[in-house]
Amino acid sequence: MTTVALDTGVGPLLRSWREQRRISQLELALRADSSARHISFIETGRSRPSEEMILRLAEHLDVPVRERNALLLVAGYAPRYAQTAFDDPALDALREGMERLLQAYDPYPALIVDGTYNVVAANRGMATLLEGVADHLLVPPLNAMRITLHPEGLAPRIRNLREWRSDLLDQMDRQIALARSTQLRELYEEVAGYPVPEGTGPGPVPSLPFALPLLIEHDGRVLSFVCSIATFNTPMDVTVAELAIETFLPADRATADHLRALAS
Q: Which of 50, 56, 152, 234 has its CA 20 to 30 A from that of 38?
């Protein structure tokens, strides 16, 4: 959901995005093939920007697709980007392709989340990690952040919880700054307020200079993963723009061997 008030002019909103990105009027003008004077007139309401100018400025300010629609609405234009439900037939090909990616990643965990970390799809490898999670956390819509950080979720089994928790909260904080989502802010405040289970102090983090590992107990073993996140390039739909594929790559041979043994 957007947090933009419709009674706020598009000029002040664009100025707010520009200041948040720490870009001067002159720099934005050069990027958008305009003039600093024209940018100033737009921001103060002395000039009404065209639909194309709003989109051009939003592009150079890295405004999320959902918020670009909001800017257009405030300026009196129709939204440019559709918001198609993930299960809509129009996304059949995309959805099937993403599900193939998840299946191909088995037995390693992988899932797809939306802009507020609700899980829209997951593979069997992910289901393996969810064993022992409280039933109330597995009632749809599943939320990856709640499942990971809740004291009845994965948190008690994460050996380096404090480091992993800090990294996830930092990631959410950066997204909130980018997207200005009320829902994301509420989720952040909720999960940041979860108590940290006792006995989850700094764990024995192996030497992995390339990424912070997730160290999680499963079936009497400590599994080690590094996480990667993939999004779509130049999305033209709000739903697609907010989708992310998260994959967990085994960080050591023992973890890979254990997951393959479970799958066989």
A: 234
pTM of the predicted protein model: 0.85
- Give the tens place of pLDDT for each residue, 137-185: 999 999 999 999 999 999 999 999 999 999 999 999 999 888 778 999 9
3-state secondary structure of 207: coil
CA dist., res. 260 & res. 242, Å (int): 31
Burial 186-195 (b: 16+ CB within 10 A, else e): ebbeebeebe
The per-residue b/e assignment along 77-98, b for 16 or more CB within 10 angstroms, e otherwise, is: beebbeeeebeeeebeebbeeb
Question: How far apart (Å, rounded) are the C-alpha atoms in residues 41 and 94?
Answer: 42
The Cα–Cα gap between 195 and 202 comes to 16
**Please, are residues 241 and 66 in contact by the beta-carbon 8 Å criterion?**
yes
Tell me the per-residue pLDDT of 5-35, one tens digit each, with 9 for 90 and over. Answer: 444 799 999 999 999 999 999 999 999 999 9
DSSP state of 85: -
Amino acid, res. 201: G
**What backbone torsions phi and psi does residue 46 show, to the nearest 5 degrees?**
-75, -20
